Protein backbone atom coordinates (compact mmCIF):
# COMPACT_ATOMS: atom_id res chain seq x y z
CA UNK A 1 0.00 0.00 0.00
CA UNK A 2 2.78 2.39 0.94
CA UNK A 3 4.71 1.37 -2.17
CA UNK A 4 1.66 2.19 -4.32
CA UNK A 5 1.25 5.61 -2.66
CA UNK A 6 4.92 6.37 -3.27
CA UNK A 7 4.55 5.43 -6.94
CA UNK A 8 1.44 7.64 -7.23
CA UNK A 9 3.18 10.58 -5.60
CA UNK A 10 6.23 10.01 -7.80
CA UNK A 11 4.04 9.98 -10.91
CA UNK A 12 2.35 13.25 -9.90
CA UNK A 13 5.72 14.78 -9.15
CA UNK A 14 7.04 13.82 -12.61
CA UNK A 15 3.87 15.15 -14.24
CA UNK A 16 4.18 18.48 -12.39
CA UNK A 17 7.84 18.66 -13.35
CA UNK A 18 7.03 18.04 -17.03
CA UNK A 19 4.34 20.76 -16.93
CA UNK A 20 6.80 23.25 -15.41
CA UNK A 21 9.42 22.42 -18.05
CA UNK A 22 6.83 22.89 -20.82
CA UNK A 23 5.74 26.27 -19.39
CA UNK A 24 9.35 27.42 -19.19
CA UNK A 25 9.98 26.22 -22.74
CA UNK A 26 6.92 28.08 -24.05
CA UNK A 27 8.10 31.28 -22.36
CA UNK A 28 11.56 30.93 -23.90
CA UNK A 29 10.05 30.19 -27.31
CA UNK A 30 7.79 33.28 -27.21
CA UNK A 31 10.69 35.46 -26.06
CA UNK A 32 12.78 34.23 -29.01
CA UNK A 33 9.77 34.40 -31.36
CA UNK A 34 9.46 38.14 -30.70
CA UNK A 35 13.06 38.67 -31.83
CA UNK A 36 12.57 36.44 -34.88
CA UNK A 37 9.49 38.37 -35.98
CA UNK A 38 11.38 41.66 -35.88
CA UNK A 39 14.26 40.16 -37.86
CA UNK A 40 11.90 38.63 -40.44
CA UNK A 41 10.24 42.01 -40.98
CA UNK A 42 13.62 43.72 -41.40
CA UNK A 43 14.85 41.07 -43.85
CA UNK A 44 11.64 41.23 -45.86
CA UNK A 45 11.90 45.02 -46.16
CA UNK A 46 15.48 44.62 -47.43
CA UNK A 47 14.56 41.88 -49.90
CA UNK A 48 11.77 43.99 -51.39
CA UNK A 49 14.25 46.80 -52.12
CA UNK A 50 17.21 44.68 -53.25
CA UNK A 51 17.13 40.88 -53.18
CA UNK A 52 20.37 39.52 -51.74
CA UNK A 53 21.11 35.81 -51.47
CA UNK A 54 22.33 36.19 -47.87
CA UNK A 55 19.08 37.90 -46.81
CA UNK A 56 16.97 35.31 -48.60
CA UNK A 57 18.84 32.46 -46.99
CA UNK A 58 18.64 34.02 -43.52
CA UNK A 59 14.89 34.61 -43.97
CA UNK A 60 14.42 31.00 -45.06
CA UNK A 61 16.43 29.58 -42.13
CA UNK A 62 14.31 31.46 -39.57
CA UNK A 63 10.96 30.37 -41.02
CA UNK A 64 12.22 26.80 -41.45
CA UNK A 65 13.25 26.77 -37.77
CA UNK A 66 9.83 28.11 -36.71
CA UNK A 67 8.08 25.46 -38.80
CA UNK A 68 9.74 22.72 -36.77
CA UNK A 69 9.93 24.25 -33.29
CA UNK A 70 6.55 25.96 -32.86
CA UNK A 71 4.42 22.75 -32.82
CA UNK A 72 6.75 21.22 -30.19
CA UNK A 73 5.54 23.85 -27.71
CA UNK A 74 1.90 23.55 -28.76
CA UNK A 75 1.88 26.55 -31.12
CA UNK A 76 0.48 24.70 -34.13
CA UNK A 77 -0.94 27.78 -35.85
CA UNK A 78 2.46 29.50 -35.82
CA UNK A 79 3.91 26.31 -37.27
CA UNK A 80 1.33 26.29 -40.09
CA UNK A 81 2.01 29.95 -40.93
CA UNK A 82 5.75 29.24 -41.00
CA UNK A 83 5.13 26.22 -43.22
CA UNK A 84 3.26 28.39 -45.71
CA UNK A 85 6.17 30.85 -45.74
CA UNK A 86 8.58 27.99 -46.32
CA UNK A 87 6.58 26.92 -49.38
CA UNK A 88 6.69 30.47 -50.72
CA UNK A 89 10.46 30.73 -50.43
CA UNK A 90 11.54 27.11 -51.02
CA UNK A 91 12.76 28.02 -54.51
CA UNK A 92 15.49 30.25 -53.05
CA UNK A 93 17.36 27.17 -51.87
CA UNK A 94 18.01 26.07 -55.45
CA UNK A 95 19.53 29.30 -56.82
CA UNK A 96 23.21 30.17 -56.87
CA UNK A 97 24.98 33.50 -56.47
CA UNK A 98 24.92 34.29 -60.19
CA UNK A 99 21.16 33.75 -60.36
CA UNK A 100 20.64 35.92 -57.27
CA UNK A 101 22.37 38.81 -58.98
CA UNK A 102 19.82 38.63 -61.81
CA UNK A 103 16.75 38.82 -59.53
CA UNK A 104 14.48 41.70 -60.50
CA UNK A 105 10.93 42.82 -59.80
CA UNK A 106 9.73 40.40 -62.48
CA UNK A 107 10.86 37.42 -60.43
CA UNK A 108 8.76 35.83 -57.66
CA UNK A 109 10.43 38.01 -55.01
CA UNK A 110 7.96 40.91 -55.04
CA UNK A 111 4.86 38.75 -55.28
CA UNK A 112 6.07 36.46 -52.48
CA UNK A 113 7.06 39.45 -50.36
CA UNK A 114 3.50 40.85 -50.51
CA UNK A 115 2.03 37.51 -49.47
CA UNK A 116 4.66 37.19 -46.73
CA UNK A 117 3.66 40.56 -45.27
CA UNK A 118 0.14 39.21 -44.68
CA UNK A 119 1.50 36.02 -43.08
CA UNK A 120 3.84 38.01 -40.82
CA UNK A 121 0.88 40.13 -39.73
CA UNK A 122 -0.92 36.92 -38.79
CA UNK A 123 2.18 35.78 -36.88
CA UNK A 124 2.22 39.03 -34.93
CA UNK A 125 -1.40 38.43 -33.90
CA UNK A 126 -0.46 34.91 -32.81
CA UNK A 127 2.39 36.33 -30.76
CA UNK A 128 -0.02 38.74 -29.07
CA UNK A 129 -2.41 35.91 -28.15
CA UNK A 130 0.36 33.56 -26.96
CA UNK A 131 1.88 36.28 -24.77
CA UNK A 132 -1.54 36.98 -23.23
CA UNK A 133 -2.07 33.27 -22.49
CA UNK A 134 1.31 33.05 -20.74
CA UNK A 135 0.60 36.18 -18.68
CA UNK A 136 -2.81 34.86 -17.59
CA UNK A 137 -1.29 31.47 -16.74
CA UNK A 138 1.25 33.17 -14.47
CA UNK A 139 -1.36 35.23 -12.63
CA UNK A 140 -2.18 33.81 -9.23
CA UNK A 141 -5.63 35.45 -9.23
CA UNK A 142 -7.83 33.26 -11.46
CA UNK A 143 -10.10 36.22 -12.16
CA UNK A 144 -7.20 38.22 -13.58
CA UNK A 145 -7.43 39.65 -17.09
CA UNK A 146 -9.71 42.34 -18.42
CA UNK A 147 -12.90 43.37 -16.61
CA UNK A 148 -14.81 41.91 -19.55
CA UNK A 149 -14.33 38.45 -18.01
CA UNK A 150 -16.75 39.31 -15.20
CA UNK A 151 -19.73 39.74 -17.55
CA UNK A 152 -19.78 36.31 -19.28
CA UNK A 153 -21.28 37.83 -22.42
CA UNK A 154 -22.26 36.47 -25.84
CA UNK A 155 -21.01 38.54 -28.75
CA UNK A 156 -21.42 38.50 -32.54
CA UNK A 157 -18.46 39.63 -34.68
CA UNK A 158 -19.40 40.68 -38.23
CA UNK A 159 -16.33 41.22 -40.42
CA UNK A 160 -15.12 39.83 -43.76
CA UNK A 161 -11.47 39.88 -42.60
CA UNK A 162 -11.01 36.25 -41.55
CA UNK A 163 -7.69 36.87 -39.79
CA UNK A 164 -9.03 39.75 -37.71
CA UNK A 165 -12.19 37.80 -36.85
CA UNK A 166 -10.12 34.82 -35.73
CA UNK A 167 -7.83 37.02 -33.66
CA UNK A 168 -10.66 38.89 -31.93
CA UNK A 169 -12.58 35.66 -31.32
CA UNK A 170 -9.64 34.04 -29.58
CA UNK A 171 -8.85 37.14 -27.50
CA UNK A 172 -12.49 37.53 -26.45
CA UNK A 173 -12.71 33.84 -25.59
CA UNK A 174 -9.73 34.34 -23.29
CA UNK A 175 -11.94 36.94 -21.57
CA UNK A 176 -14.65 34.28 -21.07
CA UNK A 177 -16.93 35.59 -23.83
CA UNK A 178 -19.02 33.30 -26.03
CA UNK A 179 -18.30 34.48 -29.57
CA UNK A 180 -20.00 33.80 -32.91
CA UNK A 181 -18.57 34.97 -36.23
CA UNK A 182 -20.19 36.15 -39.46
CA UNK A 183 -18.24 36.95 -42.64
CA UNK A 184 -21.12 38.80 -44.31
CA UNK A 185 -24.42 40.53 -43.58
CA UNK A 186 -26.59 37.59 -44.65
CA UNK A 187 -24.84 35.21 -42.23
CA UNK A 188 -25.14 37.80 -39.45
CA UNK A 189 -28.89 38.08 -40.01
CA UNK A 190 -29.32 34.30 -39.72
CA UNK A 191 -27.36 34.22 -36.45
CA UNK A 192 -29.33 37.17 -35.03
CA UNK A 193 -32.60 35.35 -35.74
CA UNK A 194 -31.30 32.19 -34.06
CA UNK A 195 -29.42 33.41 -30.98
CA UNK A 196 -29.63 36.14 -28.37
CA UNK A 197 -26.58 38.39 -28.19
CA UNK A 198 -25.40 41.00 -25.69
CA UNK A 199 -23.47 43.04 -28.27
CA UNK A 200 -22.51 43.14 -31.96
CA UNK A 201 -19.32 44.46 -33.57
CA UNK A 202 -19.75 45.42 -37.22
CA UNK A 203 -17.31 46.19 -40.04
CA UNK A 204 -18.69 48.77 -42.48
CA UNK A 205 -16.68 47.82 -45.58
CA UNK A 206 -17.75 44.28 -46.53
CA UNK A 207 -18.76 42.44 -49.69
CA UNK A 208 -21.20 41.79 -51.26
CA UNK A 209 -23.28 43.84 -48.81
CA UNK A 210 -21.95 46.72 -46.74
CA UNK A 211 -22.35 46.89 -42.97
CA UNK A 212 -24.92 49.66 -43.41
CA UNK A 213 -27.48 47.08 -44.54
CA UNK A 214 -27.28 45.39 -41.14
CA UNK A 215 -28.20 48.73 -39.54
CA UNK A 216 -31.51 48.66 -41.42
CA UNK A 217 -32.16 45.06 -40.39
CA UNK A 218 -31.55 45.84 -36.70
CA UNK A 219 -33.65 49.01 -36.77
CA UNK A 220 -36.64 47.28 -38.38
CA UNK A 221 -36.68 44.36 -35.91
CA UNK A 222 -38.24 45.52 -32.60
CA UNK A 223 -36.47 42.73 -30.70
CA UNK A 224 -33.04 43.88 -31.93
CA UNK A 225 -33.29 47.67 -32.15
CA UNK A 226 -31.81 48.14 -28.64
CA UNK A 227 -28.96 45.66 -29.13
CA UNK A 228 -25.62 47.43 -28.38
CA UNK A 229 -23.55 47.90 -31.56
CA UNK A 230 -19.90 48.89 -32.03
CA UNK A 231 -18.70 49.80 -35.52
CA UNK A 232 -15.15 48.70 -36.43
CA UNK A 233 -14.01 50.58 -39.51
CA UNK A 234 -10.82 51.15 -41.46
CA UNK A 235 -12.12 54.60 -42.43
CA UNK A 236 -11.48 57.51 -40.09
CA UNK A 237 -14.09 59.59 -41.87
CA UNK A 238 -16.23 62.11 -39.98
CA UNK A 239 -19.26 61.59 -42.25
CA UNK A 240 -19.12 57.84 -41.69
CA UNK A 241 -18.99 58.32 -37.93
CA UNK A 242 -21.90 60.78 -37.90
CA UNK A 243 -23.99 58.55 -40.16
CA UNK A 244 -23.35 55.48 -37.96
CA UNK A 245 -24.32 57.30 -34.79
CA UNK A 246 -27.50 58.61 -36.43
CA UNK A 247 -28.35 55.06 -37.51
CA UNK A 248 -28.01 53.80 -33.94
CA UNK A 249 -24.36 52.79 -33.37
CA UNK A 250 -23.28 53.01 -29.75
CA UNK A 251 -19.55 53.35 -30.48
CA UNK A 252 -17.15 53.72 -33.43
CA UNK A 253 -13.61 52.29 -33.36
CA UNK A 254 -11.12 52.96 -36.14
CA UNK A 255 -8.76 50.24 -37.37
CA UNK A 256 -6.02 49.53 -36.47
CA UNK A 257 -6.86 49.44 -32.77
CA UNK A 258 -5.43 47.88 -29.62
CA UNK A 259 -7.44 44.94 -28.29
CA UNK A 260 -7.29 46.30 -24.73
CA UNK A 261 -9.08 49.48 -25.81
CA UNK A 262 -11.79 47.54 -27.66
CA UNK A 263 -12.30 45.23 -24.66
CA UNK A 264 -12.65 48.25 -22.36
CA UNK A 265 -15.21 49.84 -24.70
CA UNK A 266 -17.20 46.59 -24.90
CA UNK A 267 -17.10 46.24 -21.11
CA UNK A 268 -18.26 49.81 -20.51
CA UNK A 269 -21.14 49.51 -22.97
CA UNK A 270 -22.30 46.12 -21.63
CA UNK A 271 -22.02 47.28 -18.02
CA UNK A 272 -24.21 50.32 -18.65
CA UNK A 273 -26.72 48.22 -20.57
CA UNK A 274 -26.93 45.60 -17.83
CA UNK A 275 -27.25 48.25 -15.09
CA UNK A 276 -30.10 49.93 -16.95
CA UNK A 277 -31.82 46.60 -17.54
CA UNK A 278 -31.43 45.71 -13.86
CA UNK A 279 -33.02 48.97 -12.72
CA UNK A 280 -35.79 49.21 -15.30
CA UNK A 281 -36.81 45.67 -16.12
CA UNK A 282 -35.93 43.38 -13.21
CA UNK A 283 -38.03 42.43 -10.23
CA UNK A 284 -35.86 43.47 -7.26
CA UNK A 285 -36.87 40.50 -5.08
CA UNK A 286 -36.49 37.58 -7.49
CA UNK A 287 -34.15 39.04 -10.11
CA UNK A 288 -36.34 37.83 -13.01
CA UNK A 289 -37.96 40.25 -15.44
CA UNK A 290 -40.86 42.35 -14.20
CA UNK A 291 -44.27 42.89 -15.77
CA UNK A 292 -43.12 46.12 -17.39
CA UNK A 293 -40.47 44.27 -19.37
CA UNK A 294 -42.86 41.43 -20.17
CA UNK A 295 -45.44 43.82 -21.62
CA UNK A 296 -42.75 45.42 -23.78
CA UNK A 297 -41.08 42.21 -24.93
CA UNK A 298 -44.20 40.14 -25.64
CA UNK A 299 -45.45 42.78 -28.06
CA UNK A 300 -42.11 42.67 -29.87
CA UNK A 301 -42.22 38.87 -29.94
CA UNK A 302 -45.62 38.89 -31.64
CA UNK A 303 -44.38 41.42 -34.20
CA UNK A 304 -41.51 39.04 -34.97
CA UNK A 305 -43.97 36.15 -35.44
CA UNK A 306 -46.00 38.19 -37.91
CA UNK A 307 -42.89 38.33 -40.11
CA UNK A 308 -41.45 34.89 -39.31
CA UNK A 309 -44.47 32.69 -38.44
CA UNK A 310 -43.86 30.20 -35.63
CA UNK A 311 -45.86 28.86 -32.66
CA UNK A 312 -45.57 30.59 -29.30
CA UNK A 313 -47.23 29.66 -26.00
CA UNK A 314 -47.84 31.47 -22.74
CA UNK A 315 -47.90 30.03 -19.23
CA UNK A 316 -49.54 31.67 -16.21
CA UNK A 317 -48.32 30.32 -12.85
CA UNK A 318 -49.70 30.92 -9.36
CA UNK A 319 -48.21 29.39 -6.20
CA UNK A 320 -50.70 27.20 -4.31
CA UNK A 321 -51.65 28.33 -0.78
CA UNK A 322 -49.06 31.10 -0.79
CA UNK A 323 -51.09 33.21 1.63
CA UNK A 324 -50.92 30.35 4.12
CA UNK A 325 -47.11 30.48 3.98
CA UNK A 326 -47.06 34.22 4.65
CA UNK A 327 -49.63 34.01 7.45
CA UNK A 328 -47.98 31.03 9.14
CA UNK A 329 -44.25 31.76 8.74
CA UNK A 330 -44.10 35.45 7.86
CA UNK A 331 -43.45 37.45 4.71
CA UNK A 332 -39.67 36.89 4.96
CA UNK A 333 -40.25 33.16 4.37
CA UNK A 334 -42.70 34.00 1.58
CA UNK A 335 -39.98 36.10 -0.06
CA UNK A 336 -37.54 33.19 0.14
CA UNK A 337 -40.12 30.92 -1.49
CA UNK A 338 -40.64 33.41 -4.33
CA UNK A 339 -36.88 33.65 -4.87
CA UNK A 340 -36.49 29.87 -4.82
CA UNK A 341 -39.32 29.28 -7.29
CA UNK A 342 -38.00 31.97 -9.65
CA UNK A 343 -34.55 30.36 -9.54
CA UNK A 344 -35.86 26.87 -10.30
CA UNK A 345 -38.06 28.15 -13.11
CA UNK A 346 -35.17 30.05 -14.67
CA UNK A 347 -32.73 27.14 -14.48
CA UNK A 348 -35.21 24.76 -16.12
CA UNK A 349 -36.14 27.04 -19.02
CA UNK A 350 -34.31 27.80 -22.26
CA UNK A 351 -32.33 31.01 -22.67
CA UNK A 352 -34.86 32.07 -25.33
CA UNK A 353 -37.84 31.71 -22.95
CA UNK A 354 -39.13 34.81 -21.20
CA UNK A 355 -39.85 34.51 -17.47
CA UNK A 356 -41.40 37.43 -15.58
CA UNK A 357 -42.93 38.01 -12.18
CA UNK A 358 -46.41 39.27 -12.92
CA UNK A 359 -47.27 40.35 -9.41
CA UNK A 360 -47.55 38.80 -5.95
CA UNK A 361 -47.07 35.06 -6.27
CA UNK A 362 -47.81 35.02 -10.01
CA UNK A 363 -45.32 34.40 -12.81
CA UNK A 364 -45.72 34.33 -16.58
CA UNK A 365 -43.55 32.52 -19.11
CA UNK A 366 -43.51 33.10 -22.87
CA UNK A 367 -42.17 30.10 -24.81
CA UNK A 368 -41.22 31.02 -28.41
CA UNK A 369 -41.25 28.30 -31.09
CA UNK A 370 -43.34 26.14 -28.75
CA UNK A 371 -46.75 24.59 -29.40
CA UNK A 372 -49.44 24.13 -26.75
CA UNK A 373 -48.54 20.46 -26.30
CA UNK A 374 -44.81 21.19 -26.01
CA UNK A 375 -45.43 23.97 -23.48
CA UNK A 376 -47.68 21.68 -21.41
CA UNK A 377 -44.98 19.00 -21.33
CA UNK A 378 -42.30 21.53 -20.34
CA UNK A 379 -44.30 23.02 -17.47
CA UNK A 380 -45.50 19.63 -16.29
CA UNK A 381 -41.86 18.52 -15.98
CA UNK A 382 -40.95 21.70 -14.10
CA UNK A 383 -43.92 21.22 -11.75
CA UNK A 384 -42.68 17.70 -10.98
CA UNK A 385 -39.17 19.03 -10.22
CA UNK A 386 -40.46 21.81 -7.98
CA UNK A 387 -42.98 19.69 -6.09
CA UNK A 388 -40.26 17.08 -5.46
CA UNK A 389 -37.65 19.47 -4.06
CA UNK A 390 -37.68 22.24 -1.43
CA UNK A 391 -37.58 25.71 -2.96
CA UNK A 392 -36.27 27.38 0.22
CA UNK A 393 -34.80 26.75 3.66
CA UNK A 394 -35.19 28.92 6.73
CA UNK A 395 -33.59 28.16 10.10
CA UNK A 396 -33.03 24.57 9.03
CA UNK A 397 -36.63 24.01 7.90
CA UNK A 398 -37.22 23.13 4.24
CA UNK A 399 -40.18 24.67 2.42
CA UNK A 400 -41.81 22.84 -0.49
CA UNK A 401 -44.58 24.18 -2.70
CA UNK A 402 -46.72 23.33 -5.69
CA UNK A 403 -48.23 25.64 -8.25
CA UNK A 404 -51.20 25.81 -10.58
CA UNK A 405 -50.54 26.72 -14.19
CA UNK A 406 -52.54 27.59 -17.28
CA UNK A 407 -51.14 27.29 -20.81
CA UNK A 408 -52.44 29.08 -23.91
CA UNK A 409 -51.06 29.13 -27.44
CA UNK A 410 -51.26 32.38 -29.39
CA UNK A 411 -53.61 32.43 -32.37
CA UNK A 412 -53.68 35.00 -35.13
CA UNK A 413 -55.86 37.95 -34.19
CA UNK A 414 -55.57 37.33 -30.44
CA UNK A 415 -54.58 40.42 -28.46
CA UNK A 416 -51.97 40.20 -25.71
CA UNK A 417 -54.60 40.99 -23.07
CA UNK A 418 -56.91 38.22 -24.31
CA UNK A 419 -53.99 35.81 -24.61
CA UNK A 420 -52.93 36.44 -21.02
CA UNK A 421 -56.57 36.16 -19.92
CA UNK A 422 -56.88 32.72 -21.59
CA UNK A 423 -53.79 31.43 -19.76
CA UNK A 424 -55.03 33.03 -16.54
CA UNK A 425 -58.47 31.39 -16.87
CA UNK A 426 -56.82 28.01 -17.46
CA UNK A 427 -54.76 28.57 -14.31
CA UNK A 428 -57.93 29.20 -12.28
CA UNK A 429 -59.39 26.00 -13.69
CA UNK A 430 -56.30 24.24 -12.34
CA UNK A 431 -57.02 25.83 -8.94
CA UNK A 432 -60.63 24.69 -9.02
CA UNK A 433 -59.66 21.16 -10.00
CA UNK A 434 -57.50 20.72 -6.92
CA UNK A 435 -54.32 22.76 -7.59
CA UNK A 436 -50.85 21.26 -8.25
CA UNK A 437 -51.59 20.78 -11.95
CA UNK A 438 -51.27 22.27 -15.43
CA UNK A 439 -54.35 22.99 -17.56
CA UNK A 440 -54.36 23.94 -21.25
CA UNK A 441 -56.74 26.61 -22.50
CA UNK A 442 -59.16 25.30 -25.11
CA UNK A 443 -58.21 26.21 -28.66
CA UNK A 444 -60.68 28.17 -30.78
CA UNK A 445 -60.93 26.12 -33.96
CA UNK A 446 -64.17 27.51 -35.38
CA UNK A 447 -63.99 29.44 -38.62
CA UNK A 448 -65.17 33.03 -38.74
CA UNK A 449 -68.40 31.96 -40.43
CA UNK A 450 -69.26 29.62 -37.59
CA UNK A 451 -68.34 31.93 -34.74
CA UNK A 452 -71.61 33.83 -34.92
CA UNK A 453 -73.50 30.58 -34.45
CA UNK A 454 -71.38 29.51 -31.48
CA UNK A 455 -72.92 29.70 -28.02
CA UNK A 456 -71.94 32.88 -26.20
CA UNK A 457 -68.94 32.70 -23.90
CA UNK A 458 -69.69 32.85 -20.18
CA UNK A 459 -69.83 36.45 -19.00
CA UNK A 460 -66.79 37.70 -17.11
CA UNK A 461 -67.19 38.78 -13.54
CA UNK A 462 -67.69 42.53 -13.31
CA UNK A 463 -65.82 45.05 -11.16
CA UNK A 464 -66.86 48.65 -10.57
CA UNK A 465 -64.14 51.16 -9.62
CA UNK A 466 -65.58 54.29 -7.98
CA UNK A 467 -63.05 57.09 -7.34
CA UNK A 468 -62.92 60.77 -8.21
CA UNK A 469 -59.17 60.54 -9.00
CA UNK A 470 -58.87 59.70 -12.75
CA UNK A 471 -55.16 58.82 -12.43
CA UNK A 472 -55.83 56.29 -9.68
CA UNK A 473 -58.69 54.78 -11.70
CA UNK A 474 -56.34 54.37 -14.64
CA UNK A 475 -53.62 52.78 -12.46
CA UNK A 476 -56.06 50.33 -10.89
CA UNK A 477 -57.47 49.39 -14.30
CA UNK A 478 -54.02 48.85 -15.77
CA UNK A 479 -52.98 46.65 -12.86
CA UNK A 480 -56.17 44.54 -12.77
CA UNK A 481 -57.08 44.24 -16.45
CA UNK A 482 -55.14 40.97 -16.86
CA UNK A 483 -57.71 39.28 -14.60
CA UNK A 484 -60.76 37.62 -16.22
CA UNK A 485 -63.00 40.55 -15.27
CA UNK A 486 -64.90 43.38 -16.94
CA UNK A 487 -64.01 46.74 -15.37
CA UNK A 488 -66.34 49.77 -15.26
CA UNK A 489 -65.47 53.27 -13.95
CA UNK A 490 -67.45 55.87 -12.03
CA UNK A 491 -66.03 59.26 -10.99
CA UNK A 492 -68.39 59.80 -8.04
CA UNK A 493 -71.11 58.15 -5.95
CA UNK A 494 -74.05 59.47 -7.96
CA UNK A 495 -72.65 58.13 -11.25
CA UNK A 496 -71.97 54.80 -9.56
CA UNK A 497 -75.51 54.62 -8.20
CA UNK A 498 -76.91 55.15 -11.69
CA UNK A 499 -74.70 52.35 -13.06
CA UNK A 500 -75.81 49.97 -10.31
CA UNK A 501 -79.45 50.54 -11.18
CA UNK A 502 -78.73 49.26 -14.68
CA UNK A 503 -76.32 46.40 -13.99
CA UNK A 504 -75.25 43.92 -11.32
CA UNK A 505 -71.61 43.96 -10.22
CA UNK A 506 -69.73 41.19 -8.45
CA UNK A 507 -67.40 43.59 -6.61
CA UNK A 508 -66.70 47.28 -6.14
CA UNK A 509 -63.60 49.28 -5.22
CA UNK A 510 -65.08 52.30 -3.49
CA UNK A 511 -63.35 55.51 -2.41
CA UNK A 512 -64.68 56.85 0.88
CA UNK A 513 -64.17 60.56 0.16
CA UNK A 514 -65.81 61.89 -3.04
CA UNK A 515 -67.85 64.95 -4.06
CA UNK A 516 -71.62 64.86 -4.61
CA UNK A 517 -72.14 61.43 -2.99
CA UNK A 518 -69.28 60.06 -0.86
CA UNK A 519 -68.43 56.38 -0.65
CA UNK A 520 -69.79 55.81 2.84
CA UNK A 521 -73.18 57.27 1.88
CA UNK A 522 -73.28 55.19 -1.30
CA UNK A 523 -72.39 52.05 0.66
CA UNK A 524 -75.16 52.80 3.12
CA UNK A 525 -77.76 53.10 0.32
CA UNK A 526 -76.63 49.88 -1.36
CA UNK A 527 -76.72 47.75 1.76
CA UNK A 528 -80.03 49.14 3.04
CA UNK A 529 -81.92 48.29 -0.16
CA UNK A 530 -82.14 44.49 0.22
CA UNK A 531 -84.16 44.24 -3.01
CA UNK A 532 -81.25 45.71 -5.00
CA UNK A 533 -79.40 43.24 -7.23
CA UNK A 534 -76.17 44.74 -5.88
CA UNK A 535 -77.02 44.24 -2.21
CA UNK A 536 -74.67 41.22 -2.10
CA UNK A 537 -71.90 42.93 -4.06
CA UNK A 538 -68.49 42.65 -2.39
CA UNK A 539 -67.02 46.04 -1.46
CA UNK A 540 -63.41 47.07 -0.91
CA UNK A 541 -63.30 50.53 0.70
CA UNK A 542 -60.40 52.90 -0.01
CA UNK A 543 -59.65 55.84 2.23
CA UNK A 544 -56.91 58.39 2.76
CA UNK A 545 -57.67 58.31 6.48
CA UNK A 546 -56.03 55.79 8.76
CA UNK A 547 -58.36 56.40 11.68
CA UNK A 548 -59.70 53.26 13.32
CA UNK A 549 -63.13 54.92 13.56
CA UNK A 550 -63.36 55.18 9.78
CA UNK A 551 -62.31 51.56 9.34
CA UNK A 552 -64.84 50.43 11.92
CA UNK A 553 -67.52 52.58 10.29
CA UNK A 554 -66.83 50.99 6.90
CA UNK A 555 -67.02 47.44 8.24
CA UNK A 556 -70.22 48.22 10.20
CA UNK A 557 -71.87 49.58 7.08
CA UNK A 558 -71.17 46.35 5.21
CA UNK A 559 -67.72 46.76 3.56
CA UNK A 560 -65.96 43.45 3.06
CA UNK A 561 -62.44 44.89 3.11
CA UNK A 562 -60.74 48.20 3.83
CA UNK A 563 -57.41 49.69 2.63
CA UNK A 564 -55.83 53.06 3.38
CA UNK A 565 -53.99 55.14 0.80
CA UNK A 566 -51.23 54.84 -0.24
CA UNK A 567 -51.43 51.06 -0.64
CA UNK A 568 -49.54 48.25 -2.35
CA UNK A 569 -50.96 47.45 -5.78
CA UNK A 570 -49.86 43.86 -5.34
CA UNK A 571 -51.74 43.59 -2.05
CA UNK A 572 -54.82 45.25 -3.55
CA UNK A 573 -54.82 42.74 -6.41
CA UNK A 574 -54.69 39.85 -3.95
CA UNK A 575 -57.61 41.27 -2.00
CA UNK A 576 -59.65 41.82 -5.17
CA UNK A 577 -59.03 38.22 -6.21
CA UNK A 578 -60.17 37.05 -2.80
CA UNK A 579 -63.35 39.16 -2.97
CA UNK A 580 -64.16 37.75 -6.40
CA UNK A 581 -63.44 34.16 -5.32
CA UNK A 582 -60.41 33.69 -7.56
CA UNK A 583 -58.36 32.38 -4.61
Strand content: 15-25%
What's the N-to-C terminus distance? 67 Å
Rg estimate, integer Å: 35 Å
| Biggest pleated sheet | 6 strands, mixed
Mean pLDDT: 83
Biggest β-sheet: strands ordered side by side in the sheet: 6-8-9-7-12-13
Number of helices: 21
Find the structural class using helix and strand composition: alpha/beta
List segments where confidence is low: pLDDT < 50 over at least 5 consecutive residues: 140-144, 444-458
Number of strands: 18
Q: What form results from the Cα inertia axes? A: elongated
Helix content: 40-55%
Organism: Paenibacillus anseongense
Protein name: Diguanylate cyclase
Pfam families: GGDEF, Hpt, Response_reg
Keywords: Phosphoprotein
Compile the SSE list and pairings.
Layout: H1 2-49, H2 53-69, H3 76-89, H4 97-101, H5 108-138, E1 154-158, H6 162-174, E2 178-182, H7 185-194, E3 199-203, H8 212-220, E4 229-233, H9 238-247, E5 251-254, H10 259-281, E6 289-290, H11 291-307, E7 312-319, H12 322-329, H13 331-347, E8 354-359, E9 362-368, H14 372-388, E10 392-394, E11 397-399, E12 403-409, H15 416-432, E13 438-440, H16 448-451, E14 461-466, H17 470-480, E15 485-490, H18 493-502, E16 507-511, H19 519-528, E17 538-543, H20 548-556, E18 561-564, H21 569-579
Parallel strand pairs: 1-2, 1-3, 3-4, 4-5, 6-8, 12-13, 14-15, 14-16, 16-17, 17-18
Antiparallel strand pairs: 7-9, 7-12, 8-9, 10-11
Helix pairs in contact: 1-2, 1-5, 2-3, 3-5, 5-6, 12-13, 18-19
How would you describe the overall organization of this protein?
- By secondary structure, the chain is an alpha/beta fold.
- The chain is built from 21 helices and 18 strands.
- A six-stranded mixed sheet has the order 6-8-9-7-12-13, sandwiched between helices. The protein has a five-stranded parallel sheet with strand order 2-1-3-4-5, sandwiched between helices.
- Helix 19 links the parallel strand 16 and strand 17.
- Helix 3 packs antiparallel against helix 5, helix 5 runs parallel beside helix 6 and helix 18 runs parallel beside helix 19.
- The radius of gyration is 35 Å and the shape is elongated.
- The two termini are 67 Å apart.
Amino acid sequence: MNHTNLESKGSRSESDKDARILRQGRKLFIREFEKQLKELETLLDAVRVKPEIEDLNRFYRIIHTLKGSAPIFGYDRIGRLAEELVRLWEWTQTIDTDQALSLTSTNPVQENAERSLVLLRDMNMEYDICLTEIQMDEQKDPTGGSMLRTLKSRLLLVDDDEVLRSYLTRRLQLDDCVVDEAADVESAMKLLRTHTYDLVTLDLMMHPQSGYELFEFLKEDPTLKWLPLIVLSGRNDLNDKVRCFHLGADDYVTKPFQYEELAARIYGLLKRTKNFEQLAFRDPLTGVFNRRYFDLQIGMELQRIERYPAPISLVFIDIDFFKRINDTYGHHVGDLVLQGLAHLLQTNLRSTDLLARFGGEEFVIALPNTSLEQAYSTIQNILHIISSNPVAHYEGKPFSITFSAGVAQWREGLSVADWVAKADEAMYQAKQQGRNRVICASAEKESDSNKSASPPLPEKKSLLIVDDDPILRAILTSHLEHLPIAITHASDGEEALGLMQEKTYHACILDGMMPRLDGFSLLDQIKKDERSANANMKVLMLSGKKKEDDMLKGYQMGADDYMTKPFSLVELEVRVKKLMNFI
